[in-house]
Design brief:
Elements: H1 3-15, H2 20-33, H3 36-45, H4 53-66, H5 70-86, H6 90-103, H7 105-109, H8 118-142, H9 145-172
């Protein structure tokens, strides 16, 4: 089993609204008892489930499809951000984020130097939606048809990502405060 996946599952538990005792119990389950398929189900759906052999096959197939995008990719981004920051590259990371914040209001608004947690990613998506809505309003006012079409397509994709992010928070029982 990929240790990264267990670490990402543990991160879901840590970010949840569970009591401290429940978090400890869940973390022990993830560390010692959970099967690979149960970890994958937790990463995809935010729930611990009991699985039979046939259900494990289905979970593994779903996981292989979802690995490229969605929740697992988002969690992997968070984990890699934390690992990169902790392994001796914080100076490069800080310089990169500072440059981004000079040219990107979303980076500044969502925490220039915050680790790339799911909460920060959610904030970035919400900010992108707001930014696109503003650009679309300006394009409509100026009657730039090509720009309007391009921005509407980008806005649909951003709103779909925001919807998935909101659902992810609800599935985990976490609050979406950004």
């Amino acid at each position: 089993m990929d240790k990264q996946l267990r670490l990402m599952a543990a991160q879901i538990v840590v970010e949840s609204k569970l009591s401290k005792a429940a978090k400890i119990q869940m973390l022990n389950f993830i560390k010692e008892d959970a099967s690979d398929a149960q970890i994958k189900a937790l990463l995809m759906d935010g729930k611990i489930v009991k699985l039979d052999e046939q259900a494990e096959e289905i979970v593994n197939e779903r996981f292989n499809v979802s690995e490229a995008g969605g929740r697992v990719a988002k969690l992997r981004k968070t984990y890699m951000s934390q690992v990169g920051n902790a392994t001796g590259t914080p100076l490069l990371w800080a310089a990169y984020r500072k440059l981004r914040s000079l040219h990107d209001t979303c980076t500044k608004r969502c925490g220039t130097y915050e680790l790339n947690t799911t909460r920060r990613q959610h904030c970035m998506i919400k900010c992108k939606v707001a930014k696109l809505e503003g650009q679309l309003a300006a394009a409509k006012k100026a009657d730039h048809k090509k720009e309007i079409a391009k921005l509407e397509t980008q806005l649909v994709k951003a709103k779909a990502a925001l919807s998935k992010s909101v659902q992810s928070f609800k599935d985990r029982g976490a609050s979406e405060q950004n």
